[in-house]
Amino acid sequence: MSDENKGSVGEEAEDTRSASQQEDGDPENPAVQQETEEETRNELSADITYKYEELHSRPFITPDSDIPDNLLHLSHSFGYDSRRRGNLQLLDDSTLMFIAGNLLVLLNVSTREQRYLRSCSGGGIGSITAHPSKEYFTVAEKGNLPNIIVYEYPSLQLHRILRGGTERAYSFVDFNQDGSLLASVGGDPDYMLTVWDWKKEEVMLSCKAVSQEVYRVSFSPYNPGLLTSSGSHHIKFWKMASTYTGLKLQGLMGHFGKTAATDIEGYVELPDGKVVSGTDWGNLLVWDGNGIKVEICRKEGRNCHAGKAQPFALEDGQLMTIGSDGVVRGWDFEGINTADSNILNSMFEMEPMNEMVVGHNVSLSSVVRSSTPDCFVWFAQDSSGAIWKLDLSFTYTTPDPECLFSFHAGPIKGLDVSRKSHLMATTALDRSIKVFDFLAKKELTTSRFNQGGTALSWAPTLVNQGGGLLVTGFEDGVVRLLELFNPQRLHLASGRTLKGDAKLRLKQAFKPHNAPVTAVAYERNGEILATGSSDCTVFFFTVGEKYNPIGFVKVPGPVQALEWSPHSHSENRLLILCQSGHVVELDSPDPEAQKPAKTFKLPALPSRCFRFRSIKSRIKREEEIARRQEVKENKRKEREKRLKESNQQDGGLEEEEEEEEELPPICIPDPPSTLCCGFYSQPGQFWLSMGGFDAGFLYHCKFSENQDQDPEQQQDEPFSFLPIQNADEDPICSFTFSSDRQLLICGMNSGFIRVYPLQPGDHSLTSMQAYWTLSVHDNQYGHLKHICCSHDDHFVLTAGDDGNIFSFSLLPSEELQESMQKKRAKVPSPRRGLENEAVAQDIEDPAAYSIETAKQKLEKDRLRREAELKIAAKRKKLSELQKKFKQLTNKIQSLPEHCRLKPWELQLDQRFTEQAERVKAQRVREVRKQISWEEERCSIALSKLQDWFRSSLESTMVTVVAIRSEHRVSTYRLPALTKTSTKPTNQSAASQPDGDRNAAPGRRRSRAEPAKNGNNLEEEVVLRPPVARAAGIKLADRQVERLRKAAEKAEQARAKIEKRKQEWAQLYEEKPDENCEDPKDVKAIREAKEIIGDLKLKSDKDFIVPKHLRMNTERKRAELMSLEENIQKRQTEMNRHIVALRDSKVHLLSQLRAQAEQVTNVQQRLPAHLHRPPPSLITILPEETPEKRMQYSQATLERYRVLREQRLKRMEQEGDMGLIEQLDYELEEKEREEGKALQRFDSSVIKEEEETTEEEEAEMSELEEELKREEEIRLLHERDSLLEQMESSVSQFDAELQLLRHQKLRLDWQLKMADLRQLTLYQELLLMKEFEKREDSLEQKLNARVEEESSISSKLEESSEQLELKQADLARLREREMALFAAFKASLGQEKKFEEFLTKVFKRKVKRVPKEEEEEKDSDEDWDEDSDEDEDDSSSEEEDDVDCSVCPPGCEPELFENTLQLLERRLDLSELMKEEKKSFDALKKEYDSLFNKEKCLKSGRTAAEGDIELVYREKQKKMNELDVVVPLRLNQIEFLTDGSVPSDLSPALVLDRTELKRLEERIVQLQQEKSQQRDLYCVARKQHVRLLHERKDMNTKILVLEEQCNQLMMMKYGGQVDLEALQTLSGDRTLEELKQEKLLKEAAYAEEIKEWDAKVDEARETLMHVTRNDTELLRSMTSLFNQKKELENKLKARQKTMGSQFQDYRRRVIQGDIQWFKNVLKVQSQQAEALRREIFLLSRKGGSGLSSNQDWLPPLDP
């Protein structure tokens, strides 16, 4: 297979099946035949093959062009895409396979020969793999619906085509262990995983892998039903499972857990189902199931590899791994398989068993094993640009790794060819420079440096005659001059022998830039070298044995390319192309010019600048307009054709109007498109190729004349352009011309190569039409940025960003071999003395100074040294002065005291001391400030502690104990509430009612009334001025009385009409609107919407939060504060009750003590045997009065001091109580002892009383005894009453305490529920805070839009009102114009003699002079005429003959003057109407813009409301997820399962029993309401129908009455009149006076009429006389016509009788007669016209005769 076989993709196959296979099946059994056909279709024969020649991609050639198909022939591939994943496969021990752009390269390892297979799609190749048997290999392509091609090996026959596996590209393919199945995975956008039965070309299983990039997929070698895929931050485990619907792919995504997610490039399946994968940081992950079992690392936590790690094989008990550190390691399989993590550490540490270091600058990415059994040889792909051969036997005899091939790694940054030989040099970012012999197809030499190369140029022969000098630029800004020579020729002079065909030697290195060098170019005479960089500078050097800097210039953007003007240009200039779209042209600098001493920057170098401005959108717009015009023209022709056809049938078709689409907008890209490349066309003109938005055209540009503008603000457009077919998204990245400039070869962004044939001398590229193109490099990232032709134009060299380098020949391989048989690439010989020269010093430090930086640093160092010298001199002088001063002071001290100078006298200036004092005071203040700060901090800390521990509580806890039981009740320990501001908080936008949103920001103006100013367009009377009425006419008394009664009657009628109008207005105000609804119905509907309706649960996903229930942070915080206040209020109230109960106990205690004393007193008076033991008195416990705890006496303090001293003296013992507790205990013991002593005292008193009573009883009499018994009974009753009162008081207190205790318990339950509610509210508040920022931003956005919408609505309403006013003004102007025309018609009168002339005067167009110009003119003309261009020629000639500024004879001057006045008014009206129309149009335009803006704002508001609604829904969803505690008793749970409460109550629903009962009752109520509403609806419907009929009847009746009224008005008044105006018509005195005047004038006119009647009779007689004369004239005219007719008849008869010999004479005679008759006819026409005028004058005025300028014509002779 040769690379010349190129073509488009086809899908035809050559079927080599036998005839017997085609005839399988029984034709008599259709079912069997159908099964047989399906089996035949499914089971493809192994002999089926496809023709590769018909399927592989071919070059595209412009149709109908003379370009040959085999214009370019692939010669060799010098590159290798080493950074592509899995780009190395082994077919046999001597053949490697890898992808190179659109080619598949089969490389023979031993002979280094290459064979090529082109992609069939032309879109590139995605992945390759070899069959386990090595009999087949697979090529998975890229493109639109790409295919997978299976080739046979070694025959390279196209065996199978697998279709439909992905949309755009395949990223990986792999066979299973036995090679029967093939797995493929696609790339973006579908990421489809497909399992193929590739021999049948069928898809077995297919599903989407993930939504991320997948790097690899493979079958398990131990279980054929398992697959594994990995890629970007994921690994997935697949299983081909059998389901009831068939075989399915089931995937399980791996979970990284606590391990950081990583890209997984490689993995290995273990026999037990585990998977070991690599990581980005170099460790190994062991996957068990879909989780990470353990992470493998080396001892002491070191990584397994430095960089990415990939396991690739499991052999001989070892797990083999490779890494980007260039090391191959073998790990113990048993150790990895049994590894497990512990609780403390998830890492498992182990050391590798074997290790092989391939190289230091090696990054291994994939390996393939040799197909030889029991062979340990592997071939490795190095991402650094190499292919290695490795022996992984790990024995003592293992050979070292062998580098088989070396290539560039990554994008090629520079390519150029020798001007004298078939040599090519390239450079890339892999820090290497390579030189190739592309004729011999081999690499000659390689040199490596510390930084990557970014630009390269081969010096022309003018610079180096041997053609061995290379100029290279590097990414650190260094430029190196390299000499290429043949080292084998050095031994002739030096006696040494060097190996190799060529060698590169550093000649000179310099650093002109601080950023990557992007372009280098020699001046056309070879005297100057220019270098450009991405630091926006261009540096110039003189060319010689040593390159010396001239200087540099700054340019507006990073330099893309440099091009010197060719020899055809008169001036030597440099064209600088910047990536930012700037193009700068500089004059060549003068090397001998004086240079600045401080910098290399060239001052004022003549330059011109051009900044590209996009015109592509305008081009597209014009093309679209032309296309639409062409479509319209075609449609018009088709429509005309159809009309011609249809006219014969149905008389025509209607024209169809189609709405045109909007034209493409004018678009200027921001940021601007990048500049790809360009070249000179003519002096000052150049071609540019732009990327990005502006791709698809070549732009012809030139420098503008105005160069004073800032380059950053400059905008220049191309003056011409050339469209590039199929390149709208594929710009030209590079170009080159053949030596005769008849071929333009372009490198495209998509990796295509294009060749355009050109005509000689075609600088404008007009012949750039047809082209030849071929896909060469990778279509996604193989941008073809370097292309050039060999010195003899036999080869074309290309280099792309995919790392591939191709050479093409313009001749077929046979012709090329014949022509190049005797030619060989010649490496230049070394210079004389080269072996004796020292090696040039290189710049190896990337941070080294550039030329300009070094010069600036030298200047700064010089200035610094000068400053240091000055400082040293000053210090030396200062030390000398100090020494002198010290000597002087010592001398002064040696003098007597009275001779000594005072210290202040030695001070030169007191301000020095003051300054020192100020500094000291400042420092003291700083120290005091620091101390004060510490003091304030301590005081604040103390106050905080006090507030936290003492002031944080509002009250202490009080405990009240029952008297007869152990029951007790305690108050709540209340924390002090935070002080909240009583001022109303500013509610956010979310809490504002919607009504405020809809309100306009400002009050809109009411409808404006028509302005009453100078421009109010008042109506004018344009008729003739009325004749003045004679004054002094007196009315009679009867007329005056009639006028008075008419005025009273009109006033009464006016009042009655006004009253009726008010009643009608009131009635219309009370009339409801047609769309008005009953307020009761509106209220009911609003209540129904709030209560009834589709009330969804809050947990429903479609639940919409009502606006009045929407919560925000402020409302929720207020709700939380309200709950806290309510809790505090309830607790405070309970505390108040408990404290009141404590107070009542204290009061009860005092009362019981008083009653106990009374009982004691009573019992003292009773006998001893009647005594009862006194009740035990209660005491107040310390916890009942905690406020007394802080109240201590002096004795208590003294006791506290004693106890404190005792405690300090003895040692602390366990169980010792504190001082305060001990003191309290002693006080309690003291109180108990006092109570016991009191009881003992009472009992002793009682005993003494008993003894006394016994003594007294022995001496009493009977009466005394009786009185004593009465006294005893009374005392007993009193005692018992007191005891009962005491008992009842105690019982009542205990009962009150028990009741309060129950109330507190209930309150505790309620408070616990409130605490739970508070917790829920707090959680909701936290949720609100999470959403607060988004909600506030959305609300602010919505409020802004609402305000803007309200503002626009108000402006729109104002504009609408103004439009209506303008329409009314225009209507009034039209009415005035019509009135003006009517006045003009009326002014003409009935005669209308000069109507035509006056109409022309009235309607003519006049160009009026503005007032400003009128004041400047010397003439008094107010207007001049302007001819009407729209009239025909005849009318314009007539207007030119008529002078409209002069009154014609016979026309009345008053009528003419009136017409001129009307003309002036018409012109005024026209100007006013134009102004009003202009104002109306402006208002209409403003109204339309406001309307569109309001529409956009409404849509924006709707969108904002939708966003807020989504936020509320999301917030409600989060709130629904919060847990809420609801206490329930078991008897309340009705959700039972088999009679018991289930353990899971999540499906249950909690309802309030009363609410449930209310809902059940509501169902019945709703049914009743429904029936009631149905009855009301029926009644209302009937009433509605009745009202409709009544309205219809009323309308009919109104029409009948209106018709009757109109008929009556017609009968009475003869027309329709305004009855209100008629009724209010009062007597008019002026009218009466006019009537009286009319009568008088009628009498006078009657007399005058009689006189005129006599004159008329006389004139009639004269008219009769004239009429007779006219009759005679008419008769003579008739006779003349008869004579004319007879003459014509005679003429015709003579023409018939005359012979042919007299035809010429007759013709002359006839022409003369015809001319005579024409004259006669003209004279007679004039006579007839004169007669008509005379008749007209006689009929009007009774005059006679002709006008003065008209004579009678003599009669004509026959």
Structure characteristics:
1758 residues; alpha+beta; five-stranded antiparallel beta sheet; five-stranded mixed beta sheet; 20% strand; disordered N terminus; disordered C terminus
Summarize the structure.
The protein has 1758 residues and is an alpha+beta fold.
What would you note in describing this structure?
The relative contact order is 0.04. The model is unreliable at 1-42, 980-1032, 1211-1216, 1412-1441 and 1741-1758 (pLDDT under 50). The protein is α+β, with helices and mostly antiparallel strands and 1758 residues long. Helices cover 40% and strands 20% of the residues. The longest helix has 127 residues, at 1262-1388. It contains 25 helices and 62 strands. Helix 14 runs antiparallel to helix 17 and helix 24 packs antiparallel against helix 25 (1703-1741).
Total helical elements: 25
**Strand coverage percent:** 15-25%
Global structural class: alpha+beta
Determine the mean pLDDT. Answer: 81
What portion of residues is helical? 40-55%
Q: What is the overall silhouette?
A: extended
* Major sheet: 5 strands, antiparallel
Distance between the termini: 113 Å
Helices and strands in order, then pairings?
Blueprint: H1 19-22, H2 30-42, H3 52-55, E1 60-61, E2 73-77, E3 89-92, E4 95-100, E5 103-108, E6 114-118, E7 125-130, E8 136-141, E9 148-152, E10 158-162, E11 170-175, E12 182-186, E13 192-197, E14 202-208, E15 214-219, E16 226-231, E17 234-243, E18 246-253, E19 267-269, E20 275-278, E21 284-288, E22 291-297, E23 309-315, E24 318-323, E25 327-332, H4 333-337, E26 347-349, E27 354-357, E28 364-369, E29 377-382, E30 386-391, E31 402-406, E32 412-417, E33 423-428, E34 432-437, E35 442-448, E36 453-458, E37 469-474, E38 479-485, H5 491-494, E39 503-510, E40 517-522, E41 528-533, E42 537-542, E43 548-554, E44 559-564, E45 573-578, E46 582-587, E47 607-611, H6 616-647, E48 675-682, E49 685-690, E50 697-702, E51 720-723, E52 732-737, E53 743-748, E54 752-757, E55 772-775, E56 784-789, E57 795-800, E58 805-809, H7 813-819, H8 851-893, H9 903-906, H10 910-951, E59 959-961, E60 968-970, H11 994-998, H12 1037-1070, H13 1079-1091, H14 1113-1164, H15 1194-1209, H16 1219-1257, H17 1262-1388, H18 1395-1403, E61 1406-1408, H19 1411-1416, ...
Parallel strand pairs: 22-26
Antiparallel strand pairs: 1-55, 2-58, 3-4, 4-5, 5-6, 7-8, 8-9, 9-10, 11-12, 12-13, 13-14, 15-16, 16-17, 17-18, 19-20, 20-21, 21-22, 23-24, 24-25, 25-27, 28-29, 29-30, 30-31, 32-33, 33-34, 34-35, 36-37, 37-38, 38-39, 40-41, 41-42, 42-43, 44-45, 45-46, 46-47, 48-49, 49-50, 50-51, 52-53, 53-54, ...
Helix pairs in contact: 14-17, 15-16, 17-21, 18-21, 24-25
